[in-house]
Protein 1
Amino acid sequence: MNYTKISNDDLLNWLKTNLSEKRFQHSIGTAETARDLGIKFGLDSEKLYIAGLLHDCAKCFPNEKLKEIIDNYLDIEEAEIISYKTWHAPVSAYIAQKEFGVEDEEILSSIRWHTIGKMNMTDFEKIVFLADKIEPKTREQSYIDLIAPYIKEKDGLNKALLASYKETIMSLVKRDLKICFATIEIYNKLEERLNVN
C-alpha cells in the first residue's frame, strides 16, 4: 500500500536534500528499527518504515520557519512550545501531510508525538517513539543498551518507554533545560502502571 503520494525513491531524495547527512542517516535508522519492531509486535512494518522515515522531516528547518508554521497552521498548547527542540515534531507531521500526501492518522500521530509522547499512546506510536531513541546508526550504543533490552520483556514497550523517559528527564535536568508538563505526566503514569518504586 502507498502511504505517500510520491515514490520511496523521491521521498529519500527529498530527505537527503533537506536534512543534514547525520539526520538523514538517523531517519533511515529510525525507519529500519521501526520496521523491525513492527515485525516483532505484529504491526504494519511498511507503515512503520514510512513513519520512521518522515518523523524528522522538518528537523533541519530553521527555528523561525518552524515557529511560523506552528503559529499560522497548527494548534499547539503553550506548554509544548516551551522548548524549541520539540517544535519539529508537529511541523514534521504537517509536512508529511501537506508535502507528501500522508493521510494515515496513525503515521501522522506517531510523527506528531515522537518527541514528548502523549498519554495512552498506541503500540504503533510507542514503536516510532522508541525507534527514534534506539536506532543504531547515530544513537550512542550506551544509551541503546539502557533502553532496548526492556523491549524483550513482558510489557516491553512500556518498560522501554519508562526507561527512555527517565533518561530524558535526567538529561534535561543536567542541561538546565525546561521539561514539558506532559513528560512528567507520562512518566508518572508509566511508573504507576508498571508498579515501579
Protein 2
Amino acid sequence: MRLNKENKNLIFIFIITLTIIFLQPFVVSTSPNSFDDNNSVQIELPVESSFFLETGETWTRFYQGYELKVTYVNLEQQNIWLQLTQNGELVEEDILSEGDSLIYKKNSEKIFNITVDGIHIGPDGELVTFNPVYQYQDPTLPPPEVNNDQYNSNMNNDNVNHDNDTIPESGVNGTIFVFSLILMWFLLVNNFKSRK
C-alpha cells in the first residue's frame, strides 16, 4: 500500500505530536513561588490561601511556630501595622496598604509572602483580609509535620476563598510548552508542503 504525500505528512505530524506529549513530563517547569532569588529549591507549605483578622487578632495556623498579628489599623490612611513572630519573638513588622505584601526572608530564603487583600470596617471593628498567602519551609528550623487531614479541613472552612484557586503554574507552563511545539511542527510541515 502506497501513501500519498498528504497521508505521509499527517503520519509525520501524528508521530511528532506523540513524541512531544511523551517528552512533556521530562520538561522541568518551575513556578516563581517555588524558588528564592538564589534559585535554590524551597518547599511551599500547605497554608490557607486566604483568611481574615480583626484588629488585635493573631493568625496561629502557620507552621514552625510562626504567627501573624494585626496590631493596628489606620482607616484614614487605609493602612495596617502587621507583626510576624516566630515562637513569640518578633521577626518582621511593617505598615502596609491594600495590595502591599509582607515578604519575610531569612538568610536570603523566602519564608513568607502575604498580601493585604482589603481593609474593612464592620460592626465589631476593623477587619483585614489576606490573599494570597504563601509560607515556605524555614530550612533553619526542624521540618514541620504537615497534617494533610487538618489542612483539608481548614481548606473547607468559611475563611477560605476557593474562587482564587488556580492551576499550578508548572502545569500551565507544561501545557503551553506542548501546545507551542505542536503548533511549531504544524507550521513547519505546512510551510514544507507549500514549497513543493
